Amino acid sequence: MTARLISLNVGQPAPLRYRQKWVTTAFGKQPVSGGRRLTSGGIDGDAQADRSVHGGPAKAACVYPVEHYPIWTARLGRSLAIPSFGENFTTEGLLEEDVCIGDRFRVGQALVEVSQPRQPCFKLATWNGEPRFARWVQESGRTGFYFRCLEEGVVQSGDLIVLVERPFPWATIAEANRLMHRTKQDRAGLERMLALPALSESWRQTFQRRLAGIVESSSMRLDGPPD
Hints:
Helix content: 25-40%
Structural class: alpha+beta
Mean pLDDT: 93
CATH topology: M1 Pyruvate Kinase, Domain 3
CATH architecture: Beta Barrel
CATH superfamily: PK beta-barrel domain-like
Distance between the termini: 60 Å
Order of helices and strands: EEEEEEEHEEEHHEEEHHH
Number of strands: 13
Strand content: 25-35%
Number of helices: 6
CATH class: Mainly Beta
Low-confidence stretches: none
Largest sheet: 7 strands, mixed, barrel
Strand order of the largest sheet: 1-8-7-11-10-9-13
């Protein structure tokens, strides 16, 4: 698989009006020309306002496919400028049904690994002026995903994104989204996903809690009511 980095985007925290208050977010990223260094902590010149849910080793770069832009343009009835999804990498050729957890890609000088799908939040909806937008993106499965950085290096718009390794070809981003958002009681699916060493810790914890609940519920049914 060979894809391309269409736009490299970075941003700094800034205020964003949300309902009756202001929140701080680095969602408003801008395309940059020339190379930027990608490290395990992110891209030079990029930052996150809330490090408890954004950034970190599993989320060095947020990725969103350029192929989805026409779909959302049609639904919103207006054009969307890149990067309207707050992504660091706007890509061509990497779709959720094709990309897998654990995939490793060479991007410019850097080596990256797919860690988890992106989970859209209220800031996506607020930035794009549609309260339902985050839910639409989640329900569609067109969420994008995250890269962790395994080998640091300079990346820039126009770089090829070349598949180096695919150890788990069944573990697509679409499959991870299905387990997280739709078929939540799929015990076998959760167990398979939890066996992936590349899965991010935050998604691992969510799936572990859900699996524990399924196991407990099953045990209670087998044991029957108390005498």
